[in-house]
Amino acid sequence: MKKYLIALTAFFLPLAAKAQDLGGGLLDKTAGDQAGYSKMPIELLVGNIISIALGILGLIFLVLTVYGGYIWMIARGDEAKVEKAKETMTNSIIGLAIVLGAYAITYFVVSGLIQGTLTK
Description:
mainly alpha
């Protein structure tokens, strides 16, 4: 088992290596378009990362809402399960409101950063 783990690590480790261009374009000359990096501005990169994270949080909201509805459906009149389902759904809605607020703030800030860098 240990041999297979070492072999897989040796196989996939080079795929995780990232090259940095410290030589003023030498990486472009050497690797061309296949270098695997992009020249995206940092504000766009941060905005994309935040948008992905907020999208994942929205997906978690959906899963919690479906879970709360499922618990409510199978409660069969058991008040404890119904209350648990209501609490789960209420907390997921509060979480969604927080995520939407964070998304709105992030969109406002990132769009301001982009406009600020484009006008200079």
